[in-house]
Amino acid sequence: MAPPFPDDLLARAVVDLSAVRDNVRALAGHAPGAAVMAVVKADGYGHGMLPVARAALAGGATWLGTAVPAEALALRAGGVTPGDARVLTWLAAPGAPFGRLVAAGVDVGVAAPWALAEVAAGARAAGETARVHLKVDTGLGRNGIMPADLPDVVRRAAALEAEGVLRVVGVMSHLACADEPGHPSVALQAEAFDDAVRTVERAGASLEVRHLANSAAVLTAPRLHYDLVRPGIAVYGHSPVPQLGAPGDYGLRGAMTLQARLATVKDVPAGHGVSYGHHYTTPRDTRLGVVPLGYADGIQRHASGGSLGVGGPVGTGAGGTARVLRVAGRVCMDQFVLDLGPGAAERAGDVVTLFGASDGVDRGAVVPNAEDWARAAGTISYEIVTGIGARAPRVYAGLDAGLYTGMDESSEDRKEVQR
Fold this sequence. Notes:
It contains 12 helices and 19 strands. By secondary structure, it is an alpha/beta fold. The longest helix has 19 residues, at 184-202. Mean pLDDT is 94; it is low at 404-419.
């Protein structure tokens, strides 16, 4: 249950840590032969990296995945020890703090030939053996070693392994079209990945893990599970294949609920323009409500309503009648407007819900989900949840408050979260 909404907050994002835990358990059930790496990059997809990392581990994840080195180091600094979980980081540029990563017990993804020498130098400086995952470009055309370059990289890695400065423990890649099951690129990438694994193993590497599957592949492509799966958006309760199934179809539920208090409620006459450009004009005498969130908070301007589009959905239950309304007119930097209807029961201070745990308004839910906002804005649920800004503070619920590590133990804020 979410804690009470403090009077001094305009908006908040309630993160249900038990949903993160349960989503990880569900994902492990979809890939029973593989270990689970919960991807907690981008501040845990906007949910708060340290709290969701702890919740994911409580759900059975044994690995945590980060994009950039600073994220991996923050996990270790936040108290996630090597005994708690393996941590992998895979996106770096020359000059990255490889010595600190190795000293902290962080596995490093090597995605380019230059990185081997820098990882080795970092390992020598740390006086430790680096654990390396070779990241191969099997067809995404993004970060990764090209297959033609892999044999030379493997030879160089073998020499460094003989020196004792690094050990190749994994081979990894990433899929371009896993969210389109049956796309021919998926099978082609799997074949290229198998070739890469054989190349590395023939050179004598003793691999611990081979990993390719993201959220969509975890749910739709058992052939790609290998030793380790790397779910991201599904950890947070959103379907990576919304065209095939809603979260509940896969045993998932959304972990973030975004709420706001109505700042203003007022009656206006028919024909009254609403927000910038008057892209919505009231068709009758009605009551408007101002929601104090806007594009500065991550509310997509492309989710504007009226003549601009369908408008992002908002759930309200004032007067005991739950219903979904749409953004009326342009989303502004700090606010947007709802047409509440003539004689609406809502009052200033009432709480409305932009999105939460549901299977979506298309399935009759009166609480929208992030995918509903994604459709209204022409984007994906990933962008919706990762974009929610700091003016909607994260409030944690659903598991022991000890999982929340973002505040000082003695702070009044932490006590509020625990209540």
